[in-house]
Specification:
The protein has 195 residues and is mainly alpha-helical. Among the domains are: 77 residues, GMP Synthetase, Chain A, domain 3 (2-Layer Sandwich); 39 residues, no CATH class. Strands 3-4-5 form a 3-stranded mixed β-sheet. Strands 1-2 form a two-stranded antiparallel sheet. About 7% of the residues have low confidence.
Length: 195
């Protein structure tokens, strides 16, 4: 049995295969319907990546792509770091509190390690947020790409020991008792309570 318009092959169109009967009824005899298929998405992605790779290669050849990293290892002092921090504060768009925090304590320098001290945890978190931009600025200003920047909370020290901060009423009372034990006796004598 021979079917009109069927040459022995199934064609795909749209989403499925057509049967010989459907093809015979949908297309006129003698005319073949050839749909140009779009390339698959992965092929489009490969083409886009190749174009990007080619454009980057052209830019490298023309010398437009610059390496902004500082490769020098120049020596610097505490005075150089203070000067660099002051110029950062002058040109920066940071909050006033951050600017004050950067200049309130003298930075510590040991080799290529710079340690900045701030007064509290809030300022510590603010400085940590701007750490990459500050480190980049210092590297360029001090002409040293091997700088390590540490930020920590400032602690006062007396005779090598950390000074204890008194915040609550109980802390203050205990401190006074250490200085003069008679304060404890007065508290008991008058029946005073610590709030």
């Amino acid at each position: 049995m021979k079917i009109a318009g069927f040459n022995g092959k199934f064609q795909q169109s749209g989403g499925g295969t057509t049967t010989p009967v459907e093809k015979a009824s949908s297309a006129p005899v003698g005319r073949t319907n050839v749909n140009k298929a779009e390339p698959p998405r992965s092929f489009k992605l490969k083409m886009a990546m190749a174009e990007t790779r080619d454009s980057m290669q052209i830019q490298r050849e023309e010398g437009k792509v610059e390496d902004n990293r500082v490769k020098a290892q120049s020596e610097f002092t505490v005075a150089d770091v203070i000067s660099a921090l002051e110029s950062y504060v002058a040109t920066s768009q940071e909050d006033t509190t951050v600017k004050i925090a950067l200049t309130s304590h003298t930075p510590k320098v040991q080799g290529f390690v710079i340690t900045l001290e701030v007064d509290n945890d809030f300022l510590l978190s603010k400085i940590e947020e701007m750490h990459p931009s500050l480190l980049s600025f210092l590297a360029q200003k001090l002409n040293n790409g091997f700088i390590t920047l540490h930020v920590q909370v400032y602690t006062e020290s007396e005779n090598g020991e950390e000074k204890r901060r008194l915040f609550t009423a109980k802390d203050k009372f205990d401190h006074f008792v250490e200085i003069n034990p008679a304060v404890s006796e007065l508290k008991a004598l008058f029946g005073l309570e610590i709030e």
